Amino acid sequence: xxxxxxxxxxxxxxxxxxxxxxxxxxxxxxxxxxxxxxxxxxxxxxxxxxxxxxxxxxxxxxxxxxxxxxxxxxxxxxxxxxxxxxxxxxxxxxxxxxxxxxxxxxxxxxxxxxxxxxxxxxxxxxxxxxxxxxxxxxxxxxxxxxxxxxxxxxxxxxxxxxxxxxxxxxxxxxxxxxxxxxxxxxxxxxxxxxxxxxxxxxxxxxxxxxxxxxxxxxxxxxxxxxxxxxxxxxxxxxxxxxxxxxxxxxxxxxx
Length: 255
Prior knowledge:
Layout: E1 10-13, E2 18-22, E3 34-37, E4 43-46, H1 55-58, E5 67-70, H2 76-79, E6 87-91, H3 95-99, H4 114-123, E7 154-156, E8 161-163, E9 168-173, E10 182-186, E11 191-195, H5 212-223, E12 229-232, H6 240-253
Parallel strand pairs: 4-5, 5-6, 6-7, 11-12
Antiparallel strand pairs: 1-2, 2-3, 3-4, 8-9, 9-10, 10-11
Helix pairs in contact: 5-6
């Protein structure tokens, strides 16, 4: 018997252009950071959460121009709300997963195999129950959850540019966590949206689609990036000093 949430999303303004949204009633393993970036000509919604409740409705006060929903990768916790947006951007290597999600998606602990649970716990995440701790509304059935297909209107690769009028981001291909993981890098401000390639928490490199040697190469690349701030796919944002610490810790672990 789960309680009914008063609201599904929490929202925090980071600066004049960037707003963070997240789903507090989703367990940390699946609670992704959703970044709204305001531009002169269009806005970005970098990742969209689980899709349990309407992100577009929760963020309507932010959305006053065309929006591109960016998929830093296509795991369920990052693309659940993409289906609500007309324009969606994804790396070439995972475009098919956005059009026709291969990940079934589940909120039920009982759907995880013992092997999957062990891997998650060994990585550093607690999982001992269903993936949400409240219901978005009365009568919500956890078994009804699924990832819906989303339109793919922009396929990108390494070196492409995402231009929103007054800000320009370079697409970085950052595979390892998944084949088509990408980051958005704004050299002018030293700002990196890193998705799940790097965040200040337990990194998952032994799940389906992950590749440790490739991840090592990505970490070496990220370590040399002259960042000022990293807005990641999970957990708090951090600066260059912490980026180096995280990269070094990963490289030492996988040496």
